């Protein structure tokens, strides 16, 4: 499949490039529009004038403005950085593991974060999103390193099959320890019940500022991973023959994945499906070239996350649905529809 | 307690569908001794008799607390959660009492058999028509308990006082000293009078009973909270939320974006999850738009667990002091 792109006549490639570039601009526009909607719409109805006041009249204060500035803005910013990170993280993971089903859940990242959070609650008694962010981050990182370390031992290094097996094993172990703690600790159970679904609400500016630097920097670096991913996609032997240091590339990419998915999971909980779905959507639009897939993933992630979060706020007003629930409900049928185009699922 | 906890509402949805019609206690109140040495008309309307007064009692933990206040000690109890962690069981000395379960729906029937009970005591829920511990959704072993002896108890209704008096009557039939009961009742009546005086002095004071959790600002519906109905009767204006959740009308659930919908003079937090639920609210920027919160006008309310005069007296005295210091011009 990579070969088709390279064999295409130069003229077509140029046209395609312009088309794909235009598509990126459209996706960027969609992020901007959804970000605005995310600030304007919600379970509380707020007039457009009030939304404008929130930004252009810094002296004004009212409950409406509190909701916009202190609740919806951080939530929207989080949706953008988390969506980007999960989109890119999922793409890197699928590329480096050469596994179309790879997502943060399968690689043990979510279970590592969950275990670290319940551990933090049990041992130290942290009880707020801002408090357990670092635990989640560390847990996700440790899980990634563990999975990669397990997979990398042995003669062939971290092959896709060994990665998947190590991920499943680590997930099972962490999951059962987490269950054991949660079943015996009511505080942990209450926190987990909320965290485990994945949500953007209830996490405010402090959480954003804690994690944004990691998410932004890692996302920027990830955007340049297209070329090595393209080479890896040809298989280890070909990649080696083309002069790529396969093991080193994998290690660097995995470090990026650990930061992206770990920080995103710490910020919003285990958001299912996004990391799985976005790379497939991107591939559907621009084909197998990772140099295009990556920027598309970086924009489609926030588009999906924002859209689902807005939907969750509007459909059950004056209550709210957590974004993790909406993504599951919306994501599953979309993903099945995508998977029906068999071509897409091949890497 | 389980049925009234919003947190468990998702798993209790089927049972909750039955809870829509109201909460009137319909137990017939005519004790008619039918020849036996012991007789008691329970909340389910039936009169139970026995040749001799039951001595070996297994009780739901709250019922046990109610009986123990009047000097009747059960041999075994079952609770809806960890006995040590339940605010409704604080200060109860269960030494010598066998604990048969510390999780809703789970009762160790095998252990119960070895206690050879001759009576089982629990609240009767008139809407669901079932005793605590025998509800829809409990494990089969829990249902087995009802086969060991008669299950009796007073009906839950629209006042905590009714429940306590029901336990007083049961305790008396089981041999409790009437003067102990009268003493507890007397102290409570005094506390109630003080509470009424405090609310009468602040006729415009409004209160909102809340249980914030996760991403939800939950407001208790007094119609389904007998102690809140009592407070209303005794002069405290506990706000009735406008739109109780259709499938679980014990609460109205709002998102935090809408948490300033009601502006009471004081906030009452569900004391079963306090201070955790107050911290949840504190973390929300909207909290400062709730005037009572901003003014620090808040305390807890004894949520769905009161079963004894001594607890009620203590809680009323605490609330009376709070009301005396409250400002009735904070909210709208």
UniProtKB/TrEMBL annotation, chain A:
Q: Which InterPro entries match?
A: ABC_BtuC-like (IPR037294), ABC_transptr_permease_BtuC (IPR000522)
Q: What do the Gene Ontology cellular component annotations say?
A: plasma membrane
Q: Which GO terms describe its biological process?
A: siderophore-iron import into cell
Q: Which Pfam families did the record assign?
A: FecCD
Mode of membrane association: Multi-pass membrane protein
Q: Which UniProt keywords apply?
A: Cell membrane, Membrane, Transmembrane, Transmembrane helix, Transport
Q: Where in the cell is it found?
A: Cell membrane
Keyword Glycosyltransferase found: no
What CDD domains does its record include? TM_ABC_iron-siderophores_like
Q: Where are the transmembrane segments?
A: 20-41, 76-93, 105-125, 132-151, 163-186, 207-226, 252-281, 293-315, 321-341
Q: What's the domain of life for this entry? A: Bacteria
UniProt family annotation: Belongs to the binding-protein-dependent transport system permease family. FecCD subfamily.
What name does the UniProt record give this protein? Iron ABC transporter permease
Q: What organism, scientifically named, is this protein from?
A: Actinorhabdospora filicis
From TrEMBL, chain B:
Residue ranges of domain Fe/B12 periplasmic-binding in the record:
55-330
One GO BP: iron coordination entity transport
Superkingdom is Bacteria
GO CC annotation: outer membrane-bounded periplasmic space
Signal peptide residues on this chain, from the entry's feature table: 1-27
- Pfam families reported for this sequence: Peripla_BP_2
Coiled coil spans: none
Keywords, A to Z, come to: Signal, Transport
Keyword Signal in annotation = yes
PROSITE patterns, per database record: FE_B12_PBP, PROKAR_LIPOPROTEIN
State if Nucleotide-binding is listed as a keyword. no
Q: Where in the cell is it found?
A: Cell envelope
Recorded family membership: Belongs to the bacterial solute-binding protein 8 family.
> Protein name, please?
Fe/B12 periplasmic-binding domain-containing protein
Q: Which organism is it from?
A: Actinorhabdospora filicis
């Amino acid at each position: 499949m990579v070969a088709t792109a390279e064999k295409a006549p130069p003229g077509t490639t140029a046209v395609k490039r312009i088309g794909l570039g235009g598509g990126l601009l459209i996706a960027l526009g969609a992020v901007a529009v959804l970000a605005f909607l995310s600030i304007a719409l919600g379970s509380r109805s707020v007039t457009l004038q009030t939304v404008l006041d929130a930004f252009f009249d810094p002296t004004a204060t009212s409950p409406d403005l509190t909701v916009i500035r202190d609740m919806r803005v951080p939530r929207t910013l989080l949706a953008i950085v988390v969506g980007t990170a999960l989109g890119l993280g999922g793409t890197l993971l699928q590329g480096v593991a050469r596994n179309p089903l790879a997502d943060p859940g399968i690689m043990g990242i979510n279970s590592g974060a969950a275990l670290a959070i319940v551990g933090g609650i049990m041992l130290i008694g942290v009880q707020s999103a801002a408090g357990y962010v670092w635990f989640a981050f560390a847990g996700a990182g440790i899980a990634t390193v563990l999975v990669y370390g397990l997979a990398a031992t042995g003669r062939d290094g971290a092959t896709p099959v060994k990665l998947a097996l190590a991920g499943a094993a680590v997930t099972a172990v962490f999951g059962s320890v987490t269950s054991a703690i949660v079943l015996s600790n009511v505080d942990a159970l209450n926190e987990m019940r909320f965290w485990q679904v994945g949500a953007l609400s209830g996490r405010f500016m402090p959480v954003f500022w804690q994690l944004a630097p990691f998410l932004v920097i890692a996302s920027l670096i990830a955007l340049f991973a297209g070329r090595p991913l393209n080479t890896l996609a040809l298989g280890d032997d070909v990649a080696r023959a083309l002069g790529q240091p396969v093991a080193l590339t994998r290690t660097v990419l995995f470090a990026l994945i650990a930061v992206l998915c770990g920080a995103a999971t710490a910020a919003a909980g285990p958001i299912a499906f996004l990391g799985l779905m976005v790379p497939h959507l991107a591939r559907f639009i621009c084909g197998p070239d990772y140099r295009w897939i990556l920027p598309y993933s970086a924009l489609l992630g926030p588009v999906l996350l924002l859209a689902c979060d807005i939907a969750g706020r509007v459909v059950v007003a004056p209550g709210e649905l957590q974004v993790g629930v909406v993504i599951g409900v919306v994501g599953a049928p979309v993903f099945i529809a995508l998977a029906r185009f068999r071509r897409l699922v091949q890497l | 307690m389980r049925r009234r906890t919003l947190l468990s509402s998702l798993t209790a949805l089927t049972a909750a569908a039955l809870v829509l019609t109201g909460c009137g206690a319909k137990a017939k109140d005519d004790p008619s001794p039918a020849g036996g040495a012991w007789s008691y008309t329970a909340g389910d309307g039936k009169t139970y008799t026995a040749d001799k007064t039951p001595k070996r009692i297994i009780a739901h933990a709250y019922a046990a607390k109610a009986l123990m206040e009047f000097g009747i000690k059960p041999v075994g109890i079952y609770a809806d959660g960890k006995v040590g962690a339940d605010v409704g069981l604080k200060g109860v000395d269960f030494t010598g009492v066998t604990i048969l379960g510390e999780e809703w729906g789970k009762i160790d029937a095998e252990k119960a058999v070895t206690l050879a009970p001759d009576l089982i005591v629990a609240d009767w829920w008139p809407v669901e028509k079932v005793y605590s511990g025998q509800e829809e959704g409990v494990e089969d072993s829990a249902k087995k308990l009802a086969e060991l002896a008669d299950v009796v108890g007073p009906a839950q209704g629209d006042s905590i006082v009714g429940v306590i008096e029901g336990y007083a009557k049961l305790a008396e039939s089981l041999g409790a000293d009437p003067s102990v009961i009268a003493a507890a009742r007397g102290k409570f009546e005094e506390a109630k009078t003080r509470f009424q005086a405090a609310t009468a002095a602040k006729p415009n004071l409004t209160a909102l009973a809340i249980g914030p959790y996760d991403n939800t600002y939950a407001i208790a519906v007094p119609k389904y909270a007998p102690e809140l109905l009592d407070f209303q009767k005794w002069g405290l204006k506990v706000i009735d939320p406008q739109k109780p959740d259709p499938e679980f009308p014990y609460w109205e659930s709002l998102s935090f974006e809408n948490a300033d919908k009601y502006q009471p003079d004081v906030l009452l937090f569900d004391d079963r999850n306090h201070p955790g639920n107050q911290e949840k609210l504190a973390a929300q920027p909207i909290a400062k738009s709730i005037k009572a919160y901003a003014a620090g006008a808040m305390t807890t309310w004894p949520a769905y667990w009161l079963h004894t005069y001594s607890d009620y007296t203590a809680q009323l005295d605490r609330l009376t002091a709070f009301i005396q210091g409250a400002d009735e011009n904070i909210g709208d």
